[in-house]
Amino acid sequence: MKIKLPFSLVLVLFSSLTFSQNTFDIVFPQQNRDNICQQCFQIFRQKPKEVQFSIKRDKNSLYFHINDKNWFNTLFKNSGDGIAIDVVSKDRYNCENFNIESSQIKGVLQRPKYANKLRSELKPYGDNDYRVHVGRVPEGLINDDLEYNILFLSNKNLCNYYVIYNLESYPWDLLDMGMYLDSLTYDTKKIKPTSESGFVIKNKTLKFKIPFEKNKSEYSQADIKPIYDSLRLTDFNIKSINIKAYASVEGSLERNIELQQQRANSIVSALQTFQKPTIQTKVSSSENWVEFLNDIKGTSHEGLGDLSKNEVKAKLVGSLSNTLEPILQNHRKAVLELELERKDKYKNMSANELLTKFNSAVQSDELEKALEIQNSIFKKLNSKEISPDFLRKMEIPKQAKFAKIFNKNSAIRFLDNVRQGLIVYNELQELEKLVPKNGEVKYNLTALTIKLWRYNAIKIEESKLKTQINNLKNYGIDASLITRMLVNYNIILAENFMRQRQYDEKDKSVEFINANYKYFPLSDYDYLSLAQFFSYYANTSLAVNLLEEKAKSIEIDEDLLFYYLNLTLINKELTKTSEYRTIMLNAINMNKQRYCKLFNAIEKGGVTFQMLEDDYLRTTYCENCEN
Prior knowledge:
Blueprint: E1 3-10, H1 33-36, H2 38-45, E2 53-58, E3 61-66, H3 69-75, E4 82-89, E5 108-109, E6 113-114, H4 115-121, E7 123-124, E8 130-136, E9 146-154, E10 157-169, E11 179-180, E12 184-187, E13 199-200, E14 204-211, H5 221-231, E15 236-247, H6 253-272, E16 280-287, H7 289-295, H8 309-315, H9 318-323, H10 325-328, E17 333-342, H11 351-363, H12 367-382, H13 403-416, H14 421-434, H15 439-454, H16 462-470, H17 479-499, H18 503-516, H19 524-536, H20 540-551, H21 558-568, H22 572-575, H23 578-590, H24 592-597, H25 615-625
Parallel strand pairs: 15-16
Antiparallel strand pairs: 1-10, 2-3, 3-8, 4-5, 4-6, 4-9, 7-8, 9-10, 11-12, 12-13, 14-17, 15-17
């Protein structure tokens, strides 16, 4: 389920103004503004980053919401301190309106409300939220797409003019630490949660590129066999293929996408001929604007980067297309990511047959065989052929030599159902007594401790847990895994400090996280989760820095790219750069509908349509979203 985090940006615009509407008793200072607004500016400078506010509509009434009553009372202390709302309609940005009037009041200004009424009418509204009525939607705008800007007044002088930006977000979690089975095994965490749950055994993955020949759409078994042979899949089958097919930018968009789909599907069909198990496939296609715009930089054709997509396509015909073919040919390709699964010789046995063989192997101390059969049982659990209760039928003596088997069974039950956490926690504590120097058991127990602490399922001493994490290095656990745990440790500390309003201590934990996430690999889920953590705790710049390099890559995950856009579209200095244009065209080609939605009204799921004040963003929007 998506959540929404309000984000506000102050826009202080004081130019010579001509108003055609009632501005009530508001004063728009032209000179000596710094002195007039000194107290107001000081209060905003001292505002904790964690204080958030927004305007919300309830039927046709408008309310100012805030999460900190003390700061509210400080801001509205004197009788002339107040709020007024500017109700802005999206019609202002109609693509047929080529010249948008530059004015400080963009819509219909509401009568201001001042300190005495604001303080007396502020009421609790839900958990850690307060609201006060500040205006109504004008009759003539009731059915329009609207947004609501805030004028903050000091002694009736306009000092700050705020536009609210609505950043789309997904529920975030700790970075995935996994748990040890034969190797680290991870939850099936996805950026977009689905109804599916459970675990996925970490399989071997391979990633490589296949160039596409111009005008060739079909790839045969003979074309693919050299690639397949190079994989050396004696002990493995291909479980899944994720293909991202890219077309060069010349020619019809529709034809380019159709051709790339044909190419990608023919590759999948050719690979399928080499094995019986069905290969799960995911295919996506797009035009390769990212590499095109990057590759023409520094050439005599760099000026193409200043043109619209349609203008570029119109130019790339005839001789120019032939001239640029050495560049374009590198853009036609497929990026393949293969997930390999070890062949299972017990696959066709029933669950009861596997259970009999497993218990027999354990009784005769055939540990390797027992581990192999155990993995086959886990696959049936993962595919829902058996229930978790089946695992209790596996007869595993509580002896040190069977520690790995016991450890795997406990870990798999937790991965399959987190509600087993406390039971598994107690089992692993008992197992640790049998094998006090076993690193995998200690790692699993520590990972589980961190998760249970996060959800207040157990009480821990923070210093002891930190020592427990650091001591894992003495048992062969890789330093990158330990650092990942310490980042999670500080994520939980930050949450706790935030609840206790210990903002300085919270900032120290955030600083540790920002300084250390670079020392271990991040999955797409980790990137998004960490970026949202930074944003949630009012460190948007850290989130931008985390994602900016990935945003320039053609292989970036769609959700990561759009989250990056949400964070950066409001930066006018950034949006007019050529690098940012490349990023936006990448997003449009990935998901045009989703890109256009960013410019919807906040109430309709957009970031804000007022981003269209930016001439460049408006040109891009009108070119791609209004035709």
